[in-house]
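Input/output pair, single chain:
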Amino acid sequence: MIEKAQNFIFRALLLNNELEALEEIGAIIKQVPTLDDVENKKEGTVSIEDFTSKIRLNAIKMSSIYMAFFAFENSVRDLIKERLGEREGIEWWKKCVSSKIQAKVKERQKKDAKNKWHAPRASEDISYTDFGDAASIIIENWNHFEDLFPSQEWIKTRLNDLEQSRNAIAHNNILAERDIQRIKMYLQDWLSQVG
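Output:
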């Protein structure tokens, strides 16, 4: 019984630390709801407090990982777009991206166009690629990236390893601590390498 209580207190402290970290970066505002907030809650609104404590704890735990991955994945796309745009011009997409990836992107864009009730995911072709496509694009255009990375294998290894975690995150799953540590290490490696 004492061990369960200690475990509960430890989790509460971790949750509080996560909340404070998210509040510091402006991701959330940690407020205790007042009676007015409860009385004035609009019909149909959903709050994180509407879910179980386990789901809330996991959501908070994964939110910082999701934000880091969101920033990382989009920075990889920006690097590709900027580097190839500078070196190959505005037609870089047609010149530098395989026909297989281009065809997949066109299909996704067509699907977006059919579903007019939903805003398109993006305006740029590269935003329709899979995370794993980034390594292929970089390697296929290695002459434009070799000054940034130690080797093609370095790119392949990191992006392939990260893709497994990325897919788990994108499908709202919980990562093990070792996977979170790997993500942190690889993201630090990337930032040290690319700047």
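The two ends are 50 Å apart (CA to CA). The chain has two domains: 1-50, 52-194.
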